[in-house]
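Troubleshooting log. The previous structure file for this entry was overwritten by mistake, so regenerating from the original sequence record. Sequence copied from the archived sheet and checked twice against the printout by T.R.
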Amino acid sequence: MYIEHWLKLFYSPLLSSLYLRRMPRFSFFLGLLILLSACQASETDESKMIFRYNESAGVSSLDPAFSRNLENLWVCNMLFNGLVEIDDQLDIKPAIAQSWTIDSTGTFYRFQLRDDIYFHDSEVFPAGKGRKVVAADVVYSFERVLSPELASPGSWVFAAAADSLPFRAIGDTVVEIRLSKAFPPFLGILGMKYCSIVPREAVDYYKDDFRKNPVGTGPFRFHFWIENTRLVLLPNDHYFERDEQGNKLPYIDAVSVSFIPDKGAAYLDFVKGNFDMISGLHSSYADELLTPTGELNPLYANDFKLEKHPFLNTDYLAFNVNPAAGEQGIWKNPDFRRAMSYAIDRRAMVRYLRNNVYTPGTGGFIPKGMPGFQPTVGYDFQPDSVRKILDRLGFPGGKGLPTIQLSTTTDYVDICEYVQHQLGNFGIPIKVDVLPASVHRERSARGDLIFFRKSWLADYPDDENFMALFYSANMVPNGPNYSQYSNPIFDKLYDRALATVEREDRIELYRQMDSIVMLTAPVMPLYYDEVVRILSKNVEGLDRNPLNVLDLRRVKLTLNVVQ
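Regenerated output below.
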């Protein structure tokens, strides 16, 4: 057998984690024996369904308390469950909790837990067998996220919780949560991975190393992780969910995650059949994979399939509109900001710079895919409106206008230079200032920038996610109101929405708020993001979640994936 085939088997996800974890302690000859035995077992391995993908950004932690980015969140979603989960329609569904009630004040939640959910088998439990999840585990997990010692970036999810004894276990199967005041989005927040249930035994046993020795209740269990090289998960044999025909979930035999940092190199591996999915588009391969109209290149039609659906993210340009803060300038005039919004041909921008896979931001700030999305309240390309507004303001053809500095990062220079060119066509002078990402983030959080590129991604399925950016109490540095926007009518509607229990009534209030934002124009939506995935033809059943959560519970591979 060829050496390179031995090496492929050596990295097989089904090979013993003992060798991979302790490889430096083994002699060369013992390693060779293991390779030979793996070669003999290759026929069994080749019948397994292994879903493989690459994560170029790497994974920093398998602890759900640190699932602040997509790369961590994807893996934690496979390993852990919360009380509830969010489905593809953004509806809240039972998970560890089989049912719940909310009192008339909207401040008291009572969850009834399932009694058939077990933690993964682990050395932290007697005889290595995972025990049943009980109410005390929920209380422990939530209190852990809030603990200052842990310093979880997700501690904010319980900002609405009561100051004293917010979580209470009643026996083994009932959990009560008290809030300091009504906050209707709270139930959806509980579907975030920060709110996953973990066993105290594992955290106490592994301590800081829990980040690389996770124990949860999810459809997959941890097998091994060689940081920056490979992560492998295997099915949880005791997982509680079944499909509509009563079959156990998940269907596949393993998940193998690679960490090739070069996206171009990872793409070549995908084309060679070494991965089953590539997520997102990168300039190194976007033009080869997609046609100018955003469809899959016909050359790949027999091998791959393209899946696109809304991703709850708005990319936008923001102005510092606080009249009492920072430099004073024409951009603090809402009429001038409206003229700038009319000057951008977003449809052409998406077509030429983003392969036509995103939705032009001609609606409100609430993105496509959210219930409150309004496709007609924003700004489309209207050259005549730009000229009329500039004439009315006393700047015909842009004469006399000062240069406005647009701050961005290297990843979005093309977008900002396009905006610069578009505004320049009307005599509006723009200077693009490229900052390091960390500097840009820090300065926008301090309110130091006057005109800058940002994006906002939903964490939970409520339009409040996006309207919170314009609530005056959230003004930077105390919150995400980067524009330092303040509008008393908007604030009253926001307060009213948070006191409204009925979802449809709340959505109508959000739409009114979004209309106010668009009319006063503290921001210029550029486009609404989309989840773009290129899949091997053998992949079936991958969910289309607008939060871009990778859910492999119902995935099937129709062809053998181990070469």
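The chain has a mean pLDDT of 90. Archived copy saved in two places this time.
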